[in-house]
Amino acid sequence: MTSVPQRISREVRLAALPAGLPTPTDFALAEVPVQAPAPGQVLVRNRQFLVYGGLRTLLSAAAKDTPMPTLRPGDTLSGPAVGEVVLAPPGSPLRPGDVVTHLRGWREYALVPEAECARADPALPDPVAQLASGSTAYGALTRVARVREGDVVLVTGAAGGVGSLAGQIARLLGASRVIGSTGSPGKAGRLVAELGYDAVLTAGSWREGRGSGISREAYRAFAGQLAGAAPDGIDVLLDTVGGPQLTAAVDAARQGARFVLVGALSGQLAAEGSGATAPTEIDTFRLIVKGVSMRGYLAADHPGVRAEWTARFADWLRSGQIRLPFTRVTGIDRAPWALQELIEGKRFGTVVVELPDHG
Asked: Would you give the DSSP letter of residue 334?
């Protein structure tokens, strides 16, 4: 195998378990020599990686049953990334120069098992599109909620990576009215003007009274706005938040409503909690009498979704039927700050760290 030129890779490691919400001081930038791949591995030069709020849960000592491994001090962070193969073993289906996706982001160079790499789909016009969370939104809306013509759809956390695509997908699937929620009037305006939401609710932010299960004031404020935006109730909920917004959504459910839960930011980003639980109150009697279904969505349960989504996403992007809002942050040294700003609600859409060549 070809030897690796003398190179240094920078990577973001967990320096200490956060006492509350993570801050940049909880992370450290380490420099390590680039190693040659072992049999069955490829060496990838990462170009972009995703910054996502769910990472906070992986930093909790209380987390369990998570789809990705939890982290301990000294561990390098991980998450979706796009990169270019630098070295591959003889007989590998991958070749130097191939653009691939994998889950070993937060580092400039990654040794990745071949089985954990997938060639990036050339139909997508921008590498950032490979990192979009649309597959989650699409799978949740087509496999669990099964959006139908004429549905009224509510998407909580609509300005995030999932929500900013979910509303557009719901419309393309036939929804007659799409309602979102966000904590910022500025983001609300963008969701309506740029992404086609019919109404966006800003009252009753889950950030109010977080960690206490449900804030009555937040619940009443959100329920009031939801009643105004959907006076006849909702057919579908795609929920990334939980908390008082989920409580109010249950109260607004129409007969046979379908709820799909893809996140729980009210607990995951609670400053006083562990980030590993998201308690709230639900009127189970209403679930029964209205025949409401409620399920969590896990991508691993729906292995065919990603390929289907990528094909439709590429078509929708080329035709201009869908937009991908994202924020680019340049440099791995800025990644911890990008995570903090995302947690604080200062970012819109998908957040990606770009890794230019250095040194």
From this structure: G
Q: How many CB atoms lie within 10 A of CB 127?
A: 17
- What token pair was written down for 58? 């992986």
Q: What is the dihedral of CA 213, 216, 222, 226, to 10 degrees?
A: 100
CATH class for domain 134-301? alpha beta
Q: Which CATH number fits domain 8-131+324-354: 3.90.180.10, 3.40.50.150, 3.40.50.1000, 3.40.30.10?
A: 3.90.180.10
Average pLDDT (270-278) is 81
**Can you give 158-221 as a three-state secondary structure string?**
CCCCCHHHHHHHHHHCCCCEEEEECCCHHHHHHHHHHHCCCEEECCCCCCCCCCCCCCHHHHHH
Q: How does pLDDT run across 133-181, given as a tens digit for each residue?
A: 999 999 999 999 999 999 999 999 999 999 999 999 999 999 999 999 9
Neighbours of 53 (CB within 10 A): 22
pTM comes to: 0.93
Q: What is the model's pLDDT at position 207? A: 60
Per-residue pLDDT tens digits for 101-113:
999 999 999 999 9
Q: Rounded to a whole number, what is the distance in angstroms from the first to the last CA of the chain? A: 25
Length of the chain, please?
359
